[in-house]
Write a structure and sequence with these properties.
Number of helices: 0
Largest sheet: 6 strands, mixed
CATH architecture of the largest domain: Sandwich
Low-confidence stretches: 1-9, 13-19, 367-378
CATH superfamily of the largest domain: Immunoglobulins
CATH class of the largest domain: Mainly Beta
Strand content: 35-45%
Helix content: under 10%
Strand order of the largest sheet: 3-4-10-9-6-7
Distance between the termini: 108 Å
Number of strands: 30
Radius of gyration: 45 Å
Number of domains: 4
Amino acid sequence: MLSRKIIPLLCASIVLAGRMPAQVYAPAASYSFDTDYDPPGDTDKVFIFNRPEYQTEITASIMAVSFDSLPDWSFQWSVFDPVTMNYKLVTTIGSGWYSEIDTISVSSGYQVVMTKGSDTDTFRIWLLINDLDLEITNKDEEDKLLFGYYNCSSLDLRADTTKIPLFYYNPETAAKLNVDNHYGIRWTTDNEEATSPSRALITRVTKPPSQDTWYILTLTDDFGLERSDSVFYESIQSKADIITEYINLGDSLEYPEGGYDRFYDDDIKSAPGKYRFDISGSRNMASYEIEFGDGNVFISEGDTLNVVHEYQKPGIYKVVLTTKSDKPYECLDSLSVEAELVYAAADNFALPNVFTPNDDGNNDRIAAFNDNNFFRSADVSVLTIDITIFDRAGHKVHSYAGSIRDWEGWNGLIRNSNNRAPEGVYFYVISMFAAYEDKNKPIGSKVMSGYFHLYRE
């Protein structure tokens, strides 16, 4: 690699004893360094001019300034001819203390001799026009990634460059000196969820994003020249997204019969119970499938974005959503979440021992729930309940068989008539079936009996 000495002021100068230096400027140059051959006084410089865009016109200029900035200096400019390896005189403009060439459009070498009396300064300067073309090659006229360069698991990005070689000559030996130029490669995207490709012109992206994404390629060389190109990837990858929500028993949409929230606290997710699954956040979904974890599966063509499922048993269920994008790719993605229903033991179930159906708003019904009017000691997972209430003489005054959620309790009327039961002691017998408390005993049963006092004061 050729070594260079960077010249921050983009100028060449000669310092002779007892006076200020003469200088040659290239103020619009992007970069400058000393030549790799060694002229007397290190006066030979290389100035780099970057084209703003590939093959666009650029006009470079150089200016020679005398050391004293006084008139009466003569300037003799010549341009290097790589065929003859000699300098040929050129016509220039300028006053008696400076001279300029401002029409340089190609890489060239120049020499200027400044003369005034016995003072002579000589400079040799190389102006190199730096250019680079960058193109992503596997895209169409609308900048979209071409068909065949992507699938469900990866996408390929391909780019190529046209690099303009930079070189100058040693005018003493006619040796051609190449200028090293390194290129930094960087891919970026406009999608925060997308991974940036590796720093290569030909690269592969694994796990393509589920969102349409622009991929931008930028090249920067040692001399600050920058080129960019971009390609649009229209995503074919599905993205699964699911939100779970337990549906309280007070939800009038899912429990139109209503009143269940009086039976069960919202904090306790008692079986059987319903969950709502919201998949509206999924992307590129032509169809999907939900495995609820209890053996049931829901399949949709994507026209339903909210699904309600009722679990009959207590437990923790692994719910798996699998989405599929449109044909011909049908890319799959999956995501799992949990849904949980508790088992509240039947041993916690109890009825009150005092019942006051006097329409005062407290304990007006004997029941298994409590909102001032009703009583319930604990939530239980129950499929059915069978209850019979007797008076002391053994006469049946109330009975119910069915879901505990649908039992509204006893209101103190004999067998649902208008006859009010008198005060006294009453007995009950309950056959209760707990819901799937044990995998080895899918349904457990228990018979409960007891008594309570009915008061009307």
